Automatic annotation (TrEMBL):
<keyword id="KW-0949">S-adenosyl-L-methionine</keyword>
<keyword id="KW-0698">rRNA processing</keyword>
<keyword id="KW-0808">Transferase</keyword>
<comment type="similarity">
    <text>Belongs to the methyltransferase superfamily. RsmI family.</text>
</comment>
<dbReference type="InterPro" id="IPR035996">
    <property type="entry name" value="4pyrrol_Methylase_sf"/>
</dbReference>
<feature type="domain" description="Tetrapyrrole methylase">
    <location>
        <begin position="9"/>
        <end position="204"/>
    </location>
</feature>
<dbReference type="InterPro" id="IPR014776">
    <property type="entry name" value="4pyrrole_Mease_sub2"/>
</dbReference>
<keyword id="KW-0489">Methyltransferase</keyword>
<keyword id="KW-0963">Cytoplasm</keyword>
<dbReference type="InterPro" id="IPR053910">
    <property type="entry name" value="RsmI_HTH"/>
</dbReference>
<dbReference type="GO" id="GO:0032259">
    <property type="term" value="P:methylation"/>
</dbReference>
<dbReference type="InterPro" id="IPR018063">
    <property type="entry name" value="SAM_MeTrfase_RsmI_CS"/>
</dbReference>
<dbReference type="Pfam" id="PF00590">
    <property type="entry name" value="TP_methylase"/>
</dbReference>
<dbReference type="InterPro" id="IPR014777">
    <property type="entry name" value="4pyrrole_Mease_sub1"/>
</dbReference>
<dbReference type="Pfam" id="PF23016">
    <property type="entry name" value="RsmI_C"/>
</dbReference>
<dbReference type="InterPro" id="IPR008189">
    <property type="entry name" value="rRNA_ssu_MeTfrase_I"/>
</dbReference>
<dbReference type="GO" id="GO:0008168">
    <property type="term" value="F:methyltransferase activity"/>
</dbReference>
Amino acid sequence: MEHSLDPGLYIVATPIGNLGDITMRAVDVLRGVEAVACEDTRVTGKLMHHLGFKTRLIRYDDHAGEGDRERLLALMAEHPVALVSDAGTPLISDPGYRLVREARERGIAVTSLPGPSAAVVGMTLSGLPNDRFLFAGFLPNKAKAREDVLAELGAVRATLIFYETAPRLDAALTAIATHLPGREVSVARELTKKFEECRTGRPEDIAAHYAAHPPKGEIVLMIAPPSDAPDEALDVDALLRSELEVSKASQAAAKVAKATGLDRKTLYARALELR
Ligand code: SAM
């Protein structure tokens, strides 16, 4: 870069595995700023070592308090400061939201350098419809909270994208098979790395595969949107019958409509017949 950087906040995406994915502009900015705010100085230190320069690092992670933020804001009012996360695009399930908000409120220049984000890489690889997608961060770890999220988002006519960890994958796939029956899923693992893989299919089949081959590494978990066409494999009557054991016809129809995306009135009429 020939000219020096203006003061302000530079949000810089970094690779999610393959270091070759750093952009030329990211390298210039990380080299040219006064300091780089990062989640873990060891992780970002390694990236800098790979890039062949050493810029001052300032820790800014989930535990950062107001004092840390104030110091960074004061610095970026006078100098260029970069924000990175351990991997991928900062702020996407990573720290930075308050920093950006307050910088903007104070009239500090904020710019964002695009680069990898696991959610988008997973989405492009999955083969699931991508005209509409909804990124929803990490699925909750606790069973009830996870069910609530699946119930809430299950009716949205978009591919759902979650971040997941290997030890929790089986529970997540089982919950999807139970609460969103008939919906295809995609598991994208170790993206941009040596053992990158992406499996798309029924959650039951993917869970069976990973029961035999326990997954390692980082995971993006995606759920296909509810289908407009009736799913041949979907036994709507069985779903309605099971709900009718514990709910009134209207509630059973509403629940099955939410889970499958099918028309609630049609389901209600069928529930009345089955009752
Ligand atoms: N900000 C990051 C981004 O833009 O991708 C995401 C940070 S979030 C704390 C970390 C999660 O992202 C991991 O638990 C995993 O779900 C996902 N992730 C990150 N790198 C990945 C990779 N190489 N392959 C698959 N998933 C990845």
